[in-house]
Known about the structure:
Blueprint: E1 2-4, E2 10-12, E3 50-55, E4 58-65, E5 69-75, E6 83-86, E7 98-103, E8 106-112, E9 118-123, E10 130-134, E11 146-151, E12 154-161, E13 165-171, E14 178-182
Antiparallel strand pairs: 1-2, 3-4, 4-5, 5-6, 7-8, 8-9, 9-10, 11-12, 12-13, 13-14
Amino acid sequence: RLLAGTSAKRRCLSRGTTPEVLESRVLLTAEYKLIRDIFTGANTEGSRPASFTQVGATTFFTANTPSGGIELWKTNGTANGTILVRDILPGLRGSEPQSLTNVNGVLYFTADDGVNGRELWKSDGTTNGTVLVRDILSGPSGSNPVELTNFGGQLYFAANTVTSGQELWTSNGTFAGTTQVLDINSG
């Protein structure tokens, strides 16, 4: 029962109560297993897989290797089906793919190939089908696309250009279909 006294505090007192069983629960257990050791050798950090993105029956992700840096990988849940998609920037640095986004069964992401800077890429899961969509800002600094978003089956993102600064862009996965939506804050 609730008692109110002259003090500002209220106390809830109960007498003679017993615990009531509300529901029975079953605890689920899970087994974890290593699918593939991507970063082999004496390494305590591992490959640091991240950015898991489902596209159909394939899960794309980024992972680090001692010889290739951070690159785009894919898995179907088996050791043989867990492979590097493409070494976009050969060497120790890696292209560091970011913002993995599924739009209508195509993976879009940003990566730095060491020539064009960070730009928009797409992948169908094959080496030859992992390509630069458009070099929006020529040169090694890149347009740095961010906030890749699937809206109504269309890709939208923000990217930088010399003439417009950072503005809203859209892409259908082709060079010609990757365009600035509007110069919202001109100059």
